[in-house]
Structures are given as structure tokens and as C-alpha cells.
What does this fold into?
Amino acid sequence: MKNLVRFLAIATLVLAAYAADDVVSAVHGTVTKVDSASKTIAVKAKDGTEHTVHYTEKTTVWGADKTAAGAKDSFKGVVSGSEVVVHYTEKAGEKTATEVDKVGKDGLQYVDGTVEKVGADGRSVTVKAADGAEHTFTTASKDVAKGTEKGTKATVYYSEEGGKKVAHFFEKL
It folds into this structure.
């Protein structure tokens, strides 16, 4: 019985540590370098810090120019100078991209505003822009709006799919 209790205690600690490693963070900035040899993207954030993030074949990319996907020093169309939001996990100090969202022309659009309403299931959010227009978004996943509540000032990065605005990322202002 003692061995079973010890095993369960250790298993719980291991699972908790593993789950903590899977926290997804994000950085918004401009790509300064894509190194296809080391499979890394360097992103300079608004505050001037540079983040080097590894990518894999499983890393998804939204809004990149598919015709540039095979170009040297590009990753699925993301090239130096691209404005992006990179979602990544960090393990042992190494950042690995899970998703890269290109922002702007042909990429994700964005709107700044104040959150007016969050759906009970977290799958819809209404934001009021400075011009008074209300924008309602469906979220790409239930975690997209996590931590967002009424009154939060945020930038919403979204795509338009099937006539609906789909939020991919909320950046608190």
C-alpha cells in the first residue's frame, strides 16, 4: 500500500511538472532572421528584446505567402521583415513555436478595443473599437480568450473564415 501511495505521489509530481512545461506564451514583433539550417526564427519584440524560437514541421503558420514557402531563408512563407505573433512553449530554456501568425496584408487582421462580452463557453468575444463599432469573434480554440474579461483593453488578431471573424490571439494592452 505504501508503494502505491509513493508511486501515485511521484506520478502526480511528474505530470504536474510536465504540464507546466506545456504553457504557451506569445511574442509579437518583426522577424529579423530565418535560419533554415538551425530551424530558427529571430523575432524583435516591440520592447526591443530579440527572441530566438525553433520551429518544426508541426509548427502551423497563418497568413504567410505560400508562393514564398520554398524560398531560401523562409519558413512556410515567413521571411525577414514579416510582422508576426509567435506562439511557443519553453522547455529547458529552449523556445519551440507551435504557431506563427503573420500580421497585416494577406495575414491576420487586427482591431484594438475594449472587451464588452465573453461567451460563457469562452468561444465568443465581443470587442468595442475606439470608433464605437462592435466586433464579435468566434475563438479558434477555447483557450484563445483565456484570462480575457469584460473591460479588458486588447488587440484582437483574427482571420475571416466563412464570413465569420475568428480570433487567434488576444494581446492585452
